[in-house]
Amino acid sequence: MKEATIDYALRATWQAVARMYNEEAKKFDSTMAVGFTLLSIDPKIGTPSTSLGPKMGMEATSLSRILKSMEQKGLILRKPNPNDGRGVLIYLTEFGLEKRNDSKNTVLRFNEVVKSEVTDEKLANFFEVTEAINKLIADKKLF
């Protein structure tokens, strides 16, 4: 193909971003997936384990492996959900909060650098396009 397709641009860009985040995460003895999970857990009240997967767009089995690894590293604690006897709440430990802060700073730095290189108008257009694509997918208008 002579012209790049939309899905190619999205995929190639996301792969570059993921590679960059994983390289940065290595410096903190972590991975992008762990950092994303840390950022998805409410630092004050915890997060129900059942809502983490959908929130992150991950399958339960992948998330289970990540959570198990995070628990072994002392980043999270699992406690019974007092509002739902069958459910579990995921809480960040002190160590988890420290690592969450590292992840947050990395994401903020990424955003800061991109915003310094891309105009507000172009960024608004980018978000408008990604929102439109997500809506097309959610409304099943593509396939």
What does this structure look like?
The chain is mainly alpha-helical and 143 residues long. Helix content is 66%, strand content 12%. It is built from six helices and three strands, in the order ααβααββαα. A three-stranded antiparallel sheet has the order 1-3-2. Helix 2 (32-40) packs across helix 5. The longest helix is centred in the last third of the chain and has 24 residues, at 94-117. The protein is globular, with a radius of gyration of 18 Å. 15% of the residues are buried. The mean pLDDT is 94.
Considering DSSP H and I runs of 4 or more, what fraction of the residues is helical?
55-70%
With strands numbered from the N-terminus, the spatial order across the biggest sheet is 1-3-2
Parts with pLDDT < 50 across at least 5 consecutive residues: none
Query: Count of DSSP E strands?
Result: 3
* Number of helices, counting only DSSP H or I runs of 4 residues or more: 6
Estimate the mean pLDDT confidence: 94
